[in-house]
């Protein structure tokens, strides 16, 4: 089997429309009816809803959890998306729970996934969050879309799973990603100060 992967020279918002088009194209090719989409401020979710209108795709939008970095998803966009038959789910961001559990595992997992790119870490996280909430079934084929900072630049096909059944989550295809694997220095382990550039 051969399939195309698109690599973006730079990560970021300028890749959003291309990423959304590629995600829809692959979803249609695989008969996938749900796309899990990371969107922190609602702009990407609103664009996706417009670009994917009449496609039959249900969007499960995953913003930041409440209280994270002061970012808020506008209530009017939540209502707009719900009227179109989509879902906006606020859940616990699993790779940001080291302070709650007192261990480095979430940070280690996040940093490992960032070796692919920032978006890969977010794709896995939002897939787990969407399945934990029951919006996607364990083993259900879905497309996940995320990005680096704002917008979208990463998309994958996956078999979804919950955070309690992590080994059942499988990334089966990479649709697109940026060549740059991380944005600046990775975050330090909990309790350590970030290193200053030399």
Q: In percent, how much strand structure appears in the residues?
A: 15-25%
Report the structural category. alpha/beta
Written as H for each helix and E for each strand, in order along the chain, the element string is EHEHEHEHHHEEE
Q: Quick one: CATH class?
A: Alpha Beta
Radius of gyration: 16 Å
Stretches with pLDDT under 50, minimum 5 residues: none
Walk me through the structure.
With 198 residues, the protein is of the alpha/beta class. It has one domain: Pyruvate Kinase, Chain: A, domain 1 (3-Layer(aba) Sandwich), CATH 3.40.1380. 31% of the residues lie in helices and 18% in strands. It has helices spanning 16-30, 43-51, 75-83, 98-101, 105-113, 118-132; strands at 6-8, 34-38, 58-62, 87-88, 141-146, 154-159, 170-178. The chain has a 7-stranded mixed sheet, with helices on both faces. A hairpin with a 7-residue loop joins β5 (141-146) and β6 (154-159). The longest helix is centred in the first third of the chain and has 15 residues, at 16-30. It is globular, with a radius of gyration of 16 Å. The termini are far apart.
